[in-house]
């Protein structure tokens, strides 16, 4: 086997990502420092002396045993169309095995299926369809399908029964393309025209009401966090600590200035919405959002999204990523409001390949999955 996998420096890791154009922020060296409860290591794939891919491996130890899950969230970062893909995956497993991993988990950040706004709306309107995957996608990407077949052939397994928010990184995401098929950047007018009537009306209303949007400082993360906890209580999820967001800010921005930004949407001196955005190369993510229970009628959330989209576009990004959605499109689905909000931007739903496990020690891997399900 000519492909090898070995540790590399953070500088080599970042250099490969910069040369490639972008990668998930979960695959940057800085993310290892954000997730300090895991042991993070940068690895490189080599064909002889040529660096062909990189990855951030997060090692999580099993309770009471010196055995580890080797996890690459939305990684590794490589060309998934390579003819020697199988050799890259085998090299990763061999590298992890030497470091006492009982299993390797990867999450290829490669789009396999796409659904346009019209197709999503048709799926929501059709009472016989309850999941997006039941609707024929507008595009199925051959490279991703081949990669999936390669994973299956090599003995990797995935759980396709429940790709919601609980199963690691979400399989289904929502993205707004910021470029034309020929690679030229879209204009702000084109992006606005791509939105549905409700979004355009809400953006216009926010402007009329006097809503302003600005970028904030690290000190103002506390203001974001205050309404983030308000959002968590309203929407029924467990919020993260202020310290987590401060750590994210410190580590991501130490790696690249302005990698993480804070946006604040205000009306007559009151904070009505706040968000964080992360950018790696030509990919920008809306990572966290919050809004108050008060003054929802001034449409601060629409205003803040529009500002982030414009800023990502002005920075030359190819994609504005609104991150995870669940694939439920039934009228009674608890998350239907989320996809309806996001589809209004004129973007598309995409399905990645999902997360895949390779069991090095099958009994330990089985016990680990059982532990996760019980927890």
TrEMBL record:
GO BP annotations listed: cell wall organization; peptidoglycan biosynthetic process; regulation of cell shape
Protein name as it appears in the record: Peptidoglycan bridge formation protein FemAB
Family: Belongs to the FemABX family.
Keywords, sorted A to Z: Acyltransferase, Cell shape, Cell wall biogenesis/degradation, Peptidoglycan synthesis, Transferase
SUPFAM superfamilies, alphabetized: Acyl-CoA N-acyltransferases (Nat)
A GO term, aspect molecular function: aminoacyltransferase activity
Pfam (any one): FemAB
Keyword Cell wall biogenesis/degradation attributed: yes
PROSITE patterns (UniProt xref): FEMABX (PS51191)
Cited Gene3D superfamilies: 3.40.630.30
């Amino acid at each position: 086997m000519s492909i090898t996998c070995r540790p590399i420096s953070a500088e080599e890791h970042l250099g490969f990502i910069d040369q490639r154009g972008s990668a998930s922020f979960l695959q940057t060296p800085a993310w290892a420092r954000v997730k300090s409860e895991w042991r993070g290591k940068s690895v490189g794939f080599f064909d002889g002396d040529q660096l062909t891919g990189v990855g951030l491996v997060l090692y999580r130890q099993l309770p009471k045993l010196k055995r580890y899950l080797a996890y690459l969230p939305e990684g590794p970062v490589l060309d998934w169309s390579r003819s020697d893909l199988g050799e890259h995956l085998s090299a990763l497993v061999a590298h992890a095995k030497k470091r006492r991993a009982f299993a390797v988990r990867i999450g290829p950040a490669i789009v396999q299926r796409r659904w346009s706004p019209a197709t999503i709306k048709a799926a929501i309107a059709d009472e016989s369809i309850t999941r997006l995957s039941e609707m024929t996608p507008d595009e199925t990407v051959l490279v991703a399908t081949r990669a999936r077949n390669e994973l299956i052939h090599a003995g990797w397994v995935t759980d396709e029964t429940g790709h919601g928010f609980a199963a690691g990184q979400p399989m289904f995401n929502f993205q707004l393309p910021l470029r034309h098929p020929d690679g030229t950047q879209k204009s702000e007018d084109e992006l606005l025209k791509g939105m549905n009537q409700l979004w355009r009306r809400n953006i216009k209303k926010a402007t009329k009401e006097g809503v302003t949007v600005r970028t904030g400082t690290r000190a103002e993360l506390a203001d974001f966090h205050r309404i983030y906890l308000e959002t968590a209580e309203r929407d029924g999820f467990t919020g993260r600590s202020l310290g987590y967001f401060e750590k994210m800010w410190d580590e991501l921005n130490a790696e690249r200035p302005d990698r993480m930004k804070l946006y604040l949407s205000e009306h007559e001196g009151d904070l009505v919405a706040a968000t964080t955005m992360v950018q790696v190369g030509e990919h920008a993510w809306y990572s966290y959002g919050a809004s108050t229970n008060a003054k929802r009628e001034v449409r601060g959330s629409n205003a803040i999204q529009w500002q982030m989209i414009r800023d990502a576009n002005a920075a030359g990004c190819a994609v504005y990523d609104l991150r995870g959605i669940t694939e439920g499109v039934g009228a009674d689905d608890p998350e239907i409001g989320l996809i309806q909000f996001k589809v209004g931007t004129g973007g598309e739903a995409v399905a990645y390949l999902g997360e895949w496990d390779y069991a090095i020690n099958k009994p330990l891997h089985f016990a680990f999955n059982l532990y996760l399900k019980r927890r």
